[in-house]
Amino acid sequence: MAEKVNNFPPLPKFIPLKPCFYQNFADEIPIDYQFLVKRIYHVWIFYCITLAVNLIACLAWWIGGGYGVNFGLAILWLILFSPCGYVCWFRPAYKAFRSDSSFNFMAFFFIFGAQFLLTVLQAIGFSGWGACGWLAAITFFSTSVAAAVFMLFPAIMFTMSAVAMLICLLRVHKIYRGAGGSFQKAQDEWNSGAWRNPPSREAQYSNFSGNSLPEYPTVPNYPSGNQWP
């Protein structure tokens, strides 16, 4: 097998840094679940864009007479949650479907569930949280209509992000439970140390000798999941 070279993030050549991850949906994700994993990836991208729009809206909020702490927190959320979202909940989902890893499924459910709850709070928009949600935008119309209009955009986008996250969470949970997954399987992976470097699909296919496939194939076998809800 050819050596896999990290390809994400796709950095320009003039930057003296190299990509940190290898990502290839077609080669590593079972074909029935490539669409779902790509959807989770697109949710991450959309959430990052939402945080960037929220930063601009918080600046308008500050200029219109709001508190500067919201703008400062908006910068922090953009810098923190953009890379952490990819590493902490997209990559576990990617590795879970790539190698049928119960530990990564559980990591995805826990972290992505927390991210969903946080996004709901951001969509609500409490003052002083650095998020232009519905509450902050609607109440600010009495102070500055122009700034409040800017603040409506991240409120809408945070709501869309929360809905998309909930759909992804329910969809992955349905697939995992339908395949017989459980917390006990995740514990077994942790105790055995298999969660550190689970084999990819290619490695699983290559892990046999002779001209026949192994008696008990380890390729992930989930219920059919071609359709997006």
TrEMBL record:
Keywords: Membrane, Phosphoprotein, Protein transport, Transmembrane, Transmembrane helix, Transport. It is a multi-pass membrane protein. It is found in: Membrane. InterPro entries: SCAMP. The chain crosses the membrane at residues 44-63, 69-90, 102-125, 145-170. Its main location: membrane. Residues 203-212 have a biased composition (Polar residues). It comes from the Eukaryota. One of its GO terms (cellular component) is trans-Golgi network membrane. GO terms for biological process: protein transport. Residues 196-229 are annotated as: Disordered. Probably involved in membrane protein trafficking. PANTHER family: SECRETORY CARRIER-ASSOCIATED MEMBRANE PROTEIN 4, SECRETORY CARRIER-ASSOCIATED MEMBRANE PROTEIN SCAMP. Belongs to the SCAMP family. This is Secretory carrier-associated membrane protein. It comes from Corvus moneduloides (New Caledonian crow). The gene is SCAMP4.
